[in-house]
Amino acid sequence: MLRNFPLRPLLNGERLQTLTQCTINNTVTPQALSDRCPCKTRPPILAVDDNIFNIVALQTVLEYDFNLQSEKALNGLEALAKVQERAKDVAEYPCICGKEDPDSNFSVIFMDCNMPIMDGFMGTARIKEYLGDEKMKKMVIVALTAYTGEQFKEKCLMSGMNGYLTKPISAGQLRAFLREHTKHVQ
Ligand SMILES: [Mg+2]
């Protein structure tokens, strides 16, 4: 029996632990259950930059051109905290519709390099250390920076980033990147 099952969309941040215990009866279709799955409240992308305008620009393109929701962080330390928060959330409120891997976290992190408090290189290294090699295979961290030198690129890859994009990034470049590295864009 379904108990306490609200027949309305989830409010932002609302959690339904009871959902994980419920069984489907004739009144709730698998589609309705899937629409209310905790995994639907977890955006797949994290945008990290100390410049809020860069974040808003990226989030706008992601949302309007690709229908992708994202979270934000203003430095490497905040990014690490977001990753830790996500891991805890996935463990506490597991996906019940089968579309989310239990080991998953953000699938893509766009990481600025130069940021106060903790830069993108250290942020990436700390995230990598926290998640471990297996979980990192399911995440793509890409540098999004204004620098273009080969040495800088090398430094990004050395810190554990998977790729490198230069700002300002166009919707076309973003499409090519998301298509190559994720399942979010065909
Ligand atoms: Mg910066």
TrEMBL record:
SUPFAM superfamilies: CheY-like (SSF52172). One of its GO terms (biological process) is phosphorelay signal transduction system. InterPro entries: 2C_system_His_kinase, CheY-like_superfamily, Sig_transdc_resp-reg_receiver. It comes from the Eukaryota. Pfam families: Response_reg. The modification 4-aspartylphosphate is found at D112. Residues 44-182 form the Response regulatory domain. Keywords: Phosphoprotein. This is Response regulatory domain-containing protein.
